[in-house]
Design goal:
- The complex is a heterodimer of chains A (78) and B (406).
- The termini of chain A are far apart.
- Chain A is α+β, with helices and mostly antiparallel strands.
- Chain A is elongated.
- Chain A is 51% helix and 13% strand.
- Chain B has helices spanning 15-27, 30-33, 69-72, 114-128, 156-168, 186-201, 224-232, 249-253, 261-268, 273-312, 314-357, and strands spanning 35-45, 52-57, 62-67, 84-94, 99-109, 146-151, 173-178, 205-210, 237-241, 256-258, 369-372, 390-395, 398-403.
- In chain B, helix 5 links the parallel strand 6 (146-151) and strand 7.
- In chain B, helix 5 (156-168) runs parallel beside helix 9 and helix 6 (186-201) runs parallel beside helix 7 (224-232).
- The chains are: A alpha+beta (78), B alpha/beta (406).
- Strand 1 (63-68) of chain A pairs parallel with strand 7 (173-178) of chain B.
């Protein structure tokens, strides 16, 4: 059962939670009988999540930082 | 001058006597007959005889060495100039040249001796404590958000790991905790890096790595403090120290041991971008399929309902009634027509009979009706007329008068 109460804005989600929610929505749509309007709302959120995930993969770039003492700073590769 | 008990000391020595004296002195010393000597190999020579000749030297002195063919044949490592080794053997004096030399019977890489003994001792100790227990090892997260790296900031190992992570899983963030990885500063540096990394950054997994080197170069990873810091790490640790064949105590303590730094980075990212993309594509198409299946189902339900609706609709009843009425009226009309037809044919029959009875009908065949003009009586016998009577003659299309002449 997917809760649609207080959904997190899709554009702020990290890959893992976004993908997990997408999978939950797909399972729910595949297995549960739902009112059409609710199903459409779930589907639309699912589409947004899939788009978000694809976008995150497309522009993923590893971010390297380093510890200096107790501080975390940007790391410049030589 | 005190005299050694074994020897007669002449007043004047020949070279041979002195050399023999020295030889007996050195070769009778038990300590000198079974020693390990550390040094670097130089002037290595392998003549056709199969014996090995070389000089063992360090920064301050040198020692001539010989290894007979039978011992040389048992050597496991190929010797070469510049190699740091430990040589086992006994001191001999070669009288013709007045030289002492080490007659070697075994050679091993430097460090395999004392260091290896220390390695085994510490390994047994830590193993007994349960620090290497497989049950203690933690699983490596499949999708790490933050990967900690403990290594030298300037080594090739760091570059290799970053390239591997960038290629396989750029969604992760990386935090480097720099530390010396060899020398006296390495063990405390590695311990501090592991502790600070856990406390400050809370990574999901830590790579503890160093590129290849000699056994001494890797020695910091056998340090007891480093091993305990690996065990105490909040995040699971993947070790990647040296090459495939190098095993350090940190490797035994790590939650996962990788043969090299690059392999450690690979093990830290078991799921790659390609896997994610494939999974996303599949899930997105399942989403589409699920919604179309739902719509198909709804459409099916709707079609069924519409069918029912049509079946029970009042319009359909009206139509039914109309149809019934049509049917009835058709049947009514037919009966009526039948009766009319019947009546018509009866009428026709009557008319036919009537016309047969019409006396005038015969007139059309040439007959005529003759009547007395004076009383309009039909003349049906010659007795009823006499000459001079006026008669009327009626034929089919009219009448005319005639007079009886005789």
């Amino acid at each position: 059962m997917v809760k649609s109460v207080d959904p997190q804005p899709v554009d702020e989600m990290a890959y893992e939670p976004a993908f997990a929610e997408l999978e939950g929505i797909v399972s729910a749509l595949e297995s549960e009988q739902r009112p059409l309007e609710e199903a459409m709302a779930l589907f639309e959120r699912g589409q947004a999540l899939a788009k978000r995930c694809a976008g995150l993969l497309d522009k993923a770039e590893i971010k390297v930082r380093q510890l200096t003492g107790e501080e975390i700073e940007d790391f410049v590769e030589e | 001058m005190d005299q050694l008990p074994l020897f007669n000391v002449p007043a004047h020595w020949t070279v041979a006597e002195l050399t023999r004296y020295l030889r007996q002195l050195l070769e009778s010393d038990e300590t000198l007959q079974a020693i390990w000597v550390q040094g670097e190999i130089s002037n290595l020579a392998r003549p056709a005889s199969g014996h090995l000749y070389f000089t063992l030297k360090d920064s301050a002195a040198s020692l001539r060495c010989v290894m007979w063919r039978s011992d040389a044949a048992r050597l496991r490592l190929p010797l070469q100039d510049g190699m740091a080794v430990e040589v086992h053997g006994g001191i001999r004096v070669y009288e013709p040249q007045g030289q002492y030399q080490l007659q070697a019977d075994a050679i091993r890489p430097l460090g395999e001796g004392a260091l290896y003994q220390e390695f085994l001792r510490l390994k047994a100790l830590l193993e007994a404590e349960g620090l290497f227990d497989p049950a203690r090892k933690r699983p490596i997260p499949e999708l790490p958000r933050l990967i900690g790296i403990v290594t030298s900031p300037s080594g090739a190992a760091l570059r290799d790991m970053l390239n591997t992570l960038r290629r396989r899983y750029p969604l992760a963030g990386v935090i480097l905790a720099p530390s010396p990885v060899q020398g006296d500063e390495a063990p405390p540096g590695l311990v501090a890096a592991l502790q600070t990394l856990n406390r400050v950054a809370h990574p999901d997994v830590i790579l503890l790595a160093r590129g290849g080197g000699s056994i001494e170069d890797l020695w910091a990873f056998n340090d007891e403090g480093v091993v305990r810091a690996v065990v105490a790490s909040e995040a699971p640790v993947i070790s990647g120290v040296g090459h495939e064949t190098d095993f350090t105590l940190a490797d035994f303590a790590a939650d996962l041991r990788a043969p090299t730094p690059t392999a450690a980075a690979e093990l830290a990212t078991p799921i790659t971008m390609l896997d994610l993309q494939a999974g996303l594509t599949e899930t997105a198409s399942r989403l589409e399929a699920a919604i179309s299946a739902l719509f198909d189902r709804q459409r099916g339900l709707l079609d069924g309902l519409q069918g029912n609706l049509r079946f029970f609709s009042p319009l359909r009843r009206v139509q039914t009634e109309r149809q019934r009425l049509d049917g009835l009226s058709r049947r009514g009309n037919a009966a009526q027509a039948h009766r009319l037809a019947l009546e018509a044919s009866q009428l026709e029959g009557l008319q036919r009979r009537l016309s047969a009875l019409n006396p005038l009908a015969v007139l059309s065949r040439g007959y005529a009706v003759v009547t007395q003009k004076r009383d309009d009586k039909v003349v049906s016998s010659k007795a009823s007329v006499k000459a001079g009577d006026d008669l009327g003659v009626r034929v089919t299309d009219g009448e005319f008068d005639v007079q009886v002449t005789r």
